[in-house]
Amino acid sequence: MANIITPNSVFLDARGSLERQPLQPKLQRPKAFWQGFDQFGLFYDVFRDVCGKTVWFVGPQQQNLASSLEQAYIVGEQSGIKSKLSFVKSRTACVAYVELPEVDKFLTLQIADQSITTQIGSNLSNKFEDKKVVFCINNNNNLEWIANWAKFYHVEHGANAVVVYDNKSNSYSHQDISNILQNVAGIEQTAVVDWPFHFGVMDKVGQDHGESGYVRFAQPVMYMSLYLRLASLAHSMLNVDVDELVLSSKGRSIFEVTKKRFFGCSKFQRFLVENVLLPNVNEKDQINFNDFAFRNMHKLGAQDHMKKWAMAPRKVRPKNKIALPNTHWIEGVWNPYPVARDFKCYHFAGINTGWRAKTQKGERAEWQHKRHITEPYDPKKHVKDEFLAKKLNEIFGQ
Asked: What integer pLDDT is reported at residue 362 of this predicted model?
């Protein structure tokens, strides 16, 4: 069964008195910055908690809007109950909640000089109850890559549910993604979430003045939406991109290992697979995972300090009200475990559309900006990962 989900968003009126500002707002940013900066999105999704009594609001960091939100009121349209938002402190997103009776199907946010009404989304966790969920955010990745990515996680780890948050793809429709996932053997439940928000923007001016060089919007909020709206009852959930495949040297399932852990979390390092085609692969053919297995013999260790993770939502132990998952860590939980050494997250440089080169123009050319460009094989640099090649051939064939 497949679902295409539309979030219930709250956006400020651009004609009103409020708008989000970047840190150090007096700095002069270029026009390209403002094209990628979300000035008016307050919450990207508003929905019921799995228990029904709480309504969650998840959105990007509020920055200068924080004080206005603290003074704002939520009014249940059916019950008439009026209350203020409570907040869960997060480094990467705005996570807020109120208690409203289930009779309320709509609510109104009263903030400054604006009143904004939105529908309260239903909680969908029952559809993914006890499922092993692999999920990602997507923009125009090849549909065959997405299908093979899902196939890999079913065959190798036992995944039986897939969620794709589609971020403004224009090469195909949400229905196209849904259709291809339905054809993956062993995948019992899928969802494609329409996630049409700004992904993020480079802030070179802010970076030169001590701020972060990358302002993120869509992705940090996605994690909270997935966790609280779709996966609260899941067996476990795995955070990997379409260009990342996780393998265990012991043949273990990341879902099973995570569920068995007392604190319900696993974390593992990423290892880069170079964009060097295996022999007899024509660059004009459709490139796929099993066309790559070369690594840089001089950089066989972890790609960087960033890790990926898996989490069992009903076993994880939050320090506060909820866990706060993000791209490379899970904030606010007890997780004393070291990195799971038998798991490697293989990061395929060649499974890439070149989006960084398109969206990060003007920035220094890091390896990520050119990773979509195929390199020639160099015997003094490249070594074949025989374990990876063997596994990929077992799953995808020669």
From this structure: 47
351: tokens are 């499974």
Q: Cβ contacts of residue 149 below 8 Å, gap of 6+?
A: 134, 136, 242, 245, 289
What is the CATH number assigned to the segment(s) 8-13+28-119?
2.60.40
Residue 249: enclosing H or E segment and its boundaries?
none
Give dist(CA 358, CA 180) in Å, integer.
Answer: 27
**pLDDT tens-digit series, residues 309-327:** 999 999 999 998 999 999 9
Neighbours of 354 (CB within 10 A): 13
Helix (H) or strand (E) holding 258: helix 254-260
Coil, strand or helix: which one is 392?
helix
pTM of the full structure: 0.94
- Distance between CA atoms of residues 149 and 35, nearest Å: 32
- State yes or no: pLDDT of 387 exceeds 70: yes
Please state the domain extents for the chain. Answer: 8-13+28-119, 130-396
Confidence of residue 374 (pLDDT cuts 50, 70, 90): confident
Angle between helices 143-157 and 386-396 (to 10 degrees): 100
Q: Which residues pair with 325 in a beta bridge?
A: 330
